[in-house]
Specification:
- The protein is mainly α.
- It has helices spanning about 1-5, 10-20, 30-40, 45-60, 65-70.
- Helix 2 (about 10-20) runs antiparallel to helix 3 and helix 3 packs antiparallel against helix 4.
Length: about 70
């Protein structure tokens, strides 16, 4: 998370992918799918951001921020 705050997205992505393996169903906005979406947005990979947002909303229908981004 600190890497994302510092906008070190390339460095954050491997950690987030490890987190995904540990907690694939974490559907909180600060969880793996929210972190992935923010990281991909920072990397300007909007298709991948969209995939992460869709994965988040499939797990959490109350993720209003994610729904608005879609």
């Amino acid at each position: 998370l600190d890497l994302i705050r510092r906008e070190e997205y390339e460095s954050a992505l491997p950690w987030i992918e490890k987190l995904e393996k540990l907690l694939p169903e974490d559907a909180s906005l600060s969880g793996v799918w929210g972190l992935k979406a923010r990281t991909y947005r920072g990397l300007k990979q909007l298709d991948r951001e969209r995939e992460a947002l869709i994965a988040l909303t499939q797990r959490n229908a109350d993720a209003v921020d994610a729904l608005q981004r879609l």
